Sequence to fold (694 residues):
Amino acid sequence: MDISDSSQTVTLGHGSGGAMMQQLITEQLLPALGGQSAEGLEDAAILDIPAASIAFSTDSFTVQPLFFPGGDIGSLAVHGTVNDVAMRGARPRYLSLGLIIEEGLPLDTLRRIVESIGQAARDCDVIIASGDTKVVGRGAADSIFINTAGIGECGDHTPSVTAARPGDTVLVNGTLGDHGVAVMIAREDLQISAAVESDTAPLHTLVAAMLEASGEAVHTLRDLTRGGLAAGVNEIASAAGVGITLEAVAIPVRPEVGGACEILGLSPYAVANEGKLVAIVAPEAAEAVLAAMRAHPLGQDACVIGEVSAEPVATVRLHTPIGTTRILELPAGELLPRIC
Amino acid sequence: MSTIARCRELAATIAAAKPPPMTIMEVCGTHSHAIARYGLKQLLPDEVRFVSGPGCPVCVTADSDLDAIVQIAAQGAIIATFGDMVRVPGPRGSLAEARAAGADIRVLYSPLQALQLARENPARQVVLVGIGFETTVPSIAVTVSEAAQRGPDNFSIYSAHKVVPPAMKALVEDPEAQIDAFLCPGHVSTIIGASAYEFLAGDYEIPCAIGGFGPTDIMEAVFALIGQVKGATAYVENCYTRAVQYEGNTLAQSQIAEVFAPADAEWRGLGVIPASGLHLREEYSHLDAESRYELEAAIERDPGPCICGDVLQGKALPAECPAFGTRCTPASPIGPCMVSSEGSCAAAFKYQEI
Fold:
């Protein structure tokens, strides 16, 4: 079979461990990922990491559609794990890559995804050090699932979700809800003419700039993926045993994202992001960290959105635009659009 | 003037009016959510009390309808539904549970997508779950009419649609009800018009105000109701004139009337209310899902600690339910009012005041 033919699809044979699989890996996967020949692949990679501590994280990606405005499942799988590692102040170095492919996936689609993975890894300066490919029968997966695990070198300071302190300042690096709304519009083919793009982006250089500016004053970093801002700040409030108060007027939301959420009955605070973080910073360093964020391309819209208090413990409060106060709850589960 | 300044000004005006103790029912679930989301009760005197009404379409859907829909799903049809319905627990479980067990449940954003689904799956039956009030029904009616004229034949609809005014009538006729005034629904009123509430003011002497969904819209409608209650008068005040006309949207009304006829309908909490539902007219009855499936009688179930029925009639506040926030939460709901994005329990839970 000529797998350079764009009409070809992935079959169960490609996951068999035999010659078809070898051909798929050597001809399709490795060149895009910057790897060596399949014959030379060992059972495990040996990594050279001088740091005393390493950060280690894993994440799986199942997004539909596979390609959406602003990104695709491939770049997302790299950015997601790079960002998780970066939130601990570590420099991402190595990724593993697991592909679970549903038979029938066009090889052309696989090629585009793998090229996107390779490009994103190069952009993030991480090496894909280990990989695995499985093919499953129709219906056992939805086109393709990707798992990545990442290893990063810790620096002098390791931010932690438990380190938020009363008096700290809460910052975000830009507008919220873009990814979730972009994917929902693309997935459901909503007749909403909003030009919303996913914000998928690697945040490690932004984090490096923030730590460079103020080091240990950056107490907590959290990337605001599923569950969005609401989940992220609630997790911090619970883990650190503090209260967090946010100002609704200060929280940046694109008008088109806010409008789409209004129509669908969703909160932009509970919708996923893939290139946004919340930072909890000692108040005296907030200005310096904010300046460092704004000087970075991924932090131009960074702003202060609230502060940390001792009480009420494990609770997030929101000051509404009309001056009243309410709880910002941890989102419950699947986001489902409303009837009217 | 900014929204915040206008809200403050209205709050001061309302406080200065010294309202008597009064209970306002916000009929519409979207109002319940807006009131909670903006923390509006903090801007109003303690004398003004809000209770939620039966204006959340998912919440008022009876167990018998939920049970029928889950049965149809189990018989292999593609169920096309709005998202709110997916997690509502029915006697045989929710559609989400049916999906986990292998049923094919698709979430729609527009009812016309159901016809597309049917065309893409010619070998299967596609059943549109018709849940909603007057706001939703016109687009459903257009869908049914399109299917009747051009197919596809593998499309049908389970109509559990409801209309709002008969439920409001049932509420004021209930001797236990203590409703001093109605905040009438904004979206529904765009279709049915302000005139639809005249009988409540005229026959039952209940003050009515139609309000929009912004914080100042609601405050203005509340101020209007306080004026009527204090003046011991009752009429229909349209505080949402930028969207609602006296006669409503007559084109949408005729679209509804073309496809649907009034029928008795069962509401959660309120029981069967005469002429409060919409069934397909005779000429569209071949598109009625109920005629295509053998359905067992609905399983009767013990509601347990859930008091959604009372909450929907304004007889109880969500926090008065023994399960509220403990056994019943949005993540693990017992009753529908905790599930829907328009449910009053979900609003009270999600936007707790502090």
In short: The first strand of chain B starts at residue 22 and ends at 28. The two ends of chain B are 28 Å apart (CA to CA). Chain B has three domains: 3-55+165-238, 59-163+249-291, 308-347. Residues 308-347 of chain B form one domain.
